[in-house]
Amino acid sequence: MVMPEKRFFIAGPKKPIEAVLTLYNGRKSKTATLIVAHGFRGSLEGGGRATLLANQVSPLLRVLRFNFSAGQMLSMQIQELKAVVNFARQEYDGDIFILGRSMGGATALLYTALHPGVKGLILWAVPGDLHKTFYNALGKLNYLKLCAGNDLLLNDERGKLLLTPQFLQEFDTYDLRSAIKAWRGALLVIHGETDEVVPLAEAKELFEAANEPKTLAVLQGADHSFTQHGSEAAKYVAKWLENALG
Known about the structure:
Elements: E1 5-10, E2 17-22, E3 33-37, H1 49-57, E4 62-66, H2 74-91, E5 96-101, H3 103-114, E6 120-124, H4 130-138, H5 140-147, E7 152-156, E8 159-163, H6 165-169, H7 176-182, E9 186-192, H8 200-209, E10 214-219, H9 230-245
Parallel strand pairs: 3-4, 3-5, 5-6, 6-9, 9-10
Antiparallel strand pairs: 1-2, 2-4, 7-8
């Protein structure tokens, strides 16, 4: 069953941010908000998996998904997530939870290290080392091209995207392990056993560095995008949120 949605734009640091709200479908008079941040070259639809997730958890809380701007720079993504969180705090009652997928999870982790007040954090296939992740995601030749100071044009079934060397250089200014040590809320780390972009070992290292309360969910046979495991992942998230909401 597809839950009712509202589509709109949120004022961003440079331009409006496209967003969609899946309405709360539960019985409580007050609820929380789950903000979902997509991964590299992703979208608020998430290949259908983000929509599936939103429908799965809508009996528990409202779900706010949004699109990062096309530039993909990590510093800008942190600013855009901040704008979305501020919007949610102004418009909706209750606590804020954030789910970040892959690079969106790195963004969420870095945001929460700078801005306390988020109730819970869900890291979905999130890297512990961004350089290693993009070596795997872009391929050796493309990664080294960026490292050498050259622009990189990606042109495939996902469309066109121009990456500058600054895209990788920014990673050196952030420390994901320090960020997760600073996190003080409830944490769910969910990762695919056979993730080909971010090895499971990275997720386990982040998890070990995190404070309690924390939960690690490993999806057996799942790849980086949870291609065949979207429903299973959504059920894990729903159960965790149910416990976190009390």
